[in-house]
Specification:
The chain is an alpha+beta fold and about 400 residues long. Helices cover about 45% and strands about 20% of the residues. The chain is built from 15 helices and 11 strands. A 6-stranded mixed beta sheet has the order 1-2-6-3-5-4, with helices on both faces. A 5-stranded mixed beta sheet has the order 7-11-8-10-9, with helices on both faces. A hairpin with a 4-residue loop joins strand 4 and strand 5. Helix 9 crosses helix 12.
């Protein structure tokens, strides 16, 4: 059973009671945090903060934190995404109170040691350089920048080498003071813990955290409009990477379920349309798929293929033909039903563990969808019609952005 309440200092607490297992998993989501709230000049700041959050407090060093967690057989970690920042934790029930106290210390009072900042900046810059050598990442970066000019979605969560070089310990401290506040915090717990116990634990660890007097303000990004274009980059490789992208709906728009279903139909698994038609029947692809990320702002619907350089033009035409087919005739009744079953089945499989449940509940609340979205989404998928998906395909999948990385570009 799932319960939700708001504490006096603005913290949203969600508790899913599951006494069948002697574990408790937690997710601490901070809304209004993540790369969407970074300036373009400080891209990568959220990711750097996530890496460094567990690297020390006034009371514990990074090594001491790791030893405490390992001695419990527990886990704790932080991650930054485009639309949120999350801290994850898990332990057996008897250790959860201790783990939560340590987590509160880490979340509320990180010190971002200067030597750790320098080290992690260098390691992240190496990761960026490594990605620049991978044709798939280069093609996706090229596509992303075309779809999202002057918007944080256009950059990697890692930032760039130049923006990383300019980040400082003071930037991390300012980021933490600005974005880590109780009225932005959603704490989602799932496992062998009762609501009353959870409330007492959260009050004892976070209850005295006061809302800052300074109101939170976020910058406004320019509105996104679709302006399809092509970018072709010549790069030595054994393969050509082709990506077709379409600016599409955010998670808060009514077209979201239809687009999720269409991306599942086109690119999810060995039975997907792209895999069967372009790889199995025509032999064009080493790898082919589609994806449609969940985003607060307008998302991107993407189809991609890895193919032999000689097949590049045929592959582009093949991907475009599949999008055009959806615009012209949509899904038939059998295709629609099979895709609905696949998507709903996979959705159910993604809610089996306490960690998955805690994450999903907290994520929905962070995206301002509410816990009811779980039932809404499943019902929306189950009741979609062929005509609805056809209309959505015509609305979004007409003219693509094209990104190509190939030795023959």
């Amino acid at each position: 059973m799932t319960h939700q309440l708001t504490l006096d200092n603005g913290i949203t607490l969600i508790v899913n009671e599951n006494p069948t297992t002697d574990l408790v998993a937690g997710r601490l989501f901070f809304k209004n945090a993540g790369s969407r709230w970074e300036s373009l000049e400080k891209a990568g700041l959220s990711h750097l903060c996530a890496i460094l959050l567990t690297k020390g407090t006034d009371e514990h060093t990074a090594v001491e934190i790791a030893e405490i967690v390992e001695c419990m057989g527990a886990s704790i970690g932080a991650d930054a995404a485009t639309d949120y920042f999350v801290v994850s934790l898990k332990s057996v029930s008897s250790d959860f109170a201790s783990l939560l106290r340590l987590t509160a210390e880490i979340v509320r009072a990180p010190i971002f040691p200067a030597h750790e900042v320098t080290l992690e900046k260098e390691l992240t810059q190496r990761s960026i350089r490594s990605q620049q050598e991978q044709p798939f990442n280069v093609a996706f970066s090229q596509l992303r920048q075309a779809i999202y000019p002057n918007h944080p979605y256009g950059l990697s969560i890692l930032g760039t080498e130049d923006t990383l070089a300019g980040l400082s310990r003071e930037d991390l401290q300012t980021y933490h003071a600005t974005h880590f506040r109780p009225d932005h915090l959603i704490i989602s717990l799932s496992g062998n813990i009762a609501v009353a116990e959870a409330v007492n634990l959260i009050k004892s660890t976070f209850g005295d955290w006061l809302i800052p007097n300074t109101p939170f303000t976020s910058g406004q990004w320019p509105s996104l409009t679709s302006q399809p274009c092509q970018h072709r980059l010549k790069k030595e490789s054994q393969q050509a990477i082709i990506m077709l992208g379409y600016l599409s709906a955010s998670v808060q728009e009514e077209d979201y379920p239809s687009l999720k279903l269409l991306s599942t139909y086109l690119g999810n698994g060995l039975s997907s349309r792209l895999f069967v038609e372009l790889r199995e029947k025509r032999g064009l692809a080493y790898d082919v798929s589609a994806f449609y990320p969940t985003r607060l702002d307008a998302s991107a619907f993407v189809m991609y293929m890895r193919t032999a350089p000689d097949n590049t033009e045929a592959a582009i035409m093949g991907l475009q033909a599949e999008a055009e087919r959806l615009c012209q005739q949509g899904l038939n009744a059998m295709e629609l039903k099979a895709t609905q079953n696949k998507l709903l089945g996979q959705y159910a499989l993604g809610k089996q563990t306490n960690g998955e449940i805690a994450h999903l509940n907290g994520w929905y609340e962070t995206l301002e969808l509410g816990l009811d979205f779980d039932q809404y989404f499943q019902k929306a998928i189950a009741t979609l019609t062929s005509e609805q998906t056809h209309q959505v395909a015509r609305k979004y999948l007409q003219t693509p952005y094209i990104s190509l990385v190939s030795p023959m570009a």
